[in-house]
Amino acid sequence: MNARADQNLMDALLAFRARFGHPAPGTSVLVAVSGGADSLALLALLAQHAGQLQLTVEAATVDHGARPFSQETQALAQWCADQQVPWTLVTLPPGLEQRAAAAGTSFEAQARCERYDALEALRSARGLRYLATAHHRSDQAETLLLRLMRGAGPGGLAGIRPVLDDRILRPLLFAQRMDLRQYAFDRNLPVVEDPTNRSPAHRRNQVRHSLLPAMEGIFPGVTGVLARGASLFRGHDLLADRLLAISQRASFCAGVLTFDRGPGPEGFQREELLALLHRALWACHLGEGLDHGHLCDLLDLGRGQALDLPLGLRAECSGPRLYVFRGNSRLVPPAPFSLELPSPQHQLETVLGRLTCTPFASLPSALDGQRRVVFDAASLAFPLRLRGCLKGELFQPWGAHAPKDCAEVLADAGIPRGLRDRPLLLEDARGTQLWLLGCRRSRFLPVPEGAPDLLSLELSPVPPSIPPQAKA
What we know:
This protein folds into three domains: 3-135 and 170-193, 3-Layer(aba) Sandwich (Rossmann fold), CATH 3.40.50; 248-326, Uridine Diphospho-n-acetylenolpyruvylglucosamine Reductase, domain 3 (2-Layer Sandwich), CATH 3.30.465.60; 338-460, no CATH class. A six-stranded mixed β-sheet has the order 3-2-1-4-6-5, sandwiched between helices. It has a five-stranded antiparallel β-sheet with strand order 7-8-11-10-9. A five-stranded antiparallel β-sheet has the order 12-16-19-20-21, with helices on one face. The chain has 472 residues and is α+β, with helices and mostly antiparallel strands. The protein contains 14 helices and 22 strands.
């Protein structure tokens, strides 16, 4: 038996805990086990040292229904029973290939997504703290190469995340594949290799069995170098997240990303703006399919111009602001005709920002009619309704001598054409026009002098929340 492999894996596991604080002592872990050497080694390692680590360990296997699975599950079930490790078999519903085709993705990507969803549902149902997978250093290097060849930015080149949402762990991400294989061999674990792991039809297998070994022959140790490089990219990605939040250049509401390309006080260079735009798009799940050329086209888009992008995205420009949303000129997504604000002190997500209704005792100092308006609370009939403008509908702005077509008011305010059919006209329960969001307040329901109770309606940008990274 090779004691060095055991020690190397424990060192990697303890270093992971010291660095990230997970898995915390006194908690529980659900280990995702495919039947391969890597996942079985992780399960056996955690089960063997559960007392030392102060962990409760369970295991689960997902059957995708793509190949006969009974032999390996029987062996795995018997081993888990012998080790007194609770084990669950989760079977995905049939039709995985059809669901992948409907989603426009590969079978492998669809299987991975559904596998994580099934395991997460089981983890939650069992009341377990973590879900652990057996990704290791070679997996990280392969992922980095694959994403580099696809032209990924820092977010993609960060590779496999060690920790996702403080729940999904890759505790052996810094361990070597040879140590896991040796550990599994020494303990005679019931390893069953998936035959598709050798198929040259899959690009990852080409990288694993051809490209990476060739690189190791030229640059010995390059696997570790690539894995460490992913950590550096992860730091750059986190820095981009922070800069994006500090700069307040991006907001995301109701499926629309608004990005300010102006010079601003930061004095960002073009390359820095490209990086921030790229991160904002990915934060809003709008970055897939876009390369460096698309980002340059977005920054260069002229006022009033529009651009159709891959995967049904459309971009429109209004001055320094750039709007990106799903649904290009050939495929307009159905927009909700109306949204309701049931009462004061509620919020509503709109395509132009978060609409907040707040009681006031006196008139606020900043009222521009685009981002903020005020009404007499006694004159408003709730619920307020935000709806799309009807074709040819008229709207009379405050101070205007005559009503104007809503479409004309929206155009004058620089609202992109692709957003003008979205819910932007606010009215009360009696149908009284109140406000064209981002444009002008209506002439109706003026605030009486000395009104004791006022309501402020304000649009505020919503920073794009940084979502969990794509599961690898």
